[in-house]
Amino acid sequence: MNNKSSFVYVIYIRTTAERLWSALTNSEFAQQYWGGARPEAEWKLGGAWKLTFPDGRVADRGEITEFDPPRRLAIRWRNEIMPEFKAEGWSLCTMEIAAARGEAVKLTLTHAMERPDSKFIGTVSSGWPQILSDLKSLIETGSAAQPPKYDFPK
Amino acid sequence: MGMDAVFRALGDPLRRRLLDSLHARNGQTLGDLCAGHAMTRQAVTKHLAILEQANLIATQRRGREKLHFINPVPINAIAERWIRKFERRHLTALSALKKSLEGKNGENDE
To answer: Of A27, A52, B30, B51, which residue is the least packed, with the fewest Cβ within 10 Å?
Structure first.
């Protein structure tokens, strides 16, 4: 029944849609919850996007396919480092911000690829929960829960 | 959306089985989930609602179907709060052991 690989993450964060949007689209800030990796982009529709590892290598590249502040951001991206991931082609990561009960917003992040059993989607899916938890702590308390340690591929 | 709701939702073997099933195959419909378990449609619906309230699953509409996805974010929060900090102590003890053993025979790989 599933001819695509997708993961959906939901997190509630005590903040405003505008503050969350700027946390998602500010490279300096994003680096703090991306475990040292740095997402950079020309933050507009059609803008180029890339994720750089702490050692300077470009891990992923893509483009912004939806840009509707402070509600919806979509990035079409492909891995650049691991040949088996790159061969799988393009993934689509969508972030949607909605109002939630109390003074909170709901962030729904979907990362999908139009092929079954994608190894790339399987691998990024182990990283997203930590990135989102750190995003939440950083916004709510001003610091990430702990300096996250990722095993960046060699 | 407290931790209490997450632990309550996890405190039921049928709900844990539904999560296992989504972990094995993400994005299942209600029909898929019913087929894999000896439970009535109503029971599965009720358990899914509890899991969704605890934010352990997320749902998305695709055409006329509603797909269910495991949301590992609250489980990650449990791991942070209740597992990793104890694990860290463990790792510190191991690294102290490594240091003292390596110190004894005068070798150091660092």
So the answer is: A27
Closest B-chain CA to A144 = B80
Q: What is the pLDDT of residues A122-136, one digit of tens each?
A: 888 888 999 999 999
Chain B nearest-CA distance from A83, in A, is 25
Q: Say if the Cβ atoms of A12 and B55 lie within 8 Å.
A: yes
pTM of the predicted model, to two decimals? 0.83
* Nearest-CB residue to A6 (from B1, B26, B71): B26
Mutate: best of B29, B73, B75, B85, partner A, most A CBs <10 A? B73
Residues B88, B89, B90, B93, CA torsion sign: positive
Buried b (16+ CB within 10 A) or exposed e, A29-54: ebbbbbbbbbbebebeeeeebbbbbe
Tell me: pLDDT of B27 over 90: yes
What tens digit of pLDDT does each residue of B38-57 get?
889 999 999 999 999 999 99
CB B37 within 8 A of CB B72: no
A125 contacts in B (CB within 8 Å)? 72
Instruction: Answer yes or no: is pLDDT of B108 > 60.
Output: no
Neighbours of A120 (CB within 10 A): 24
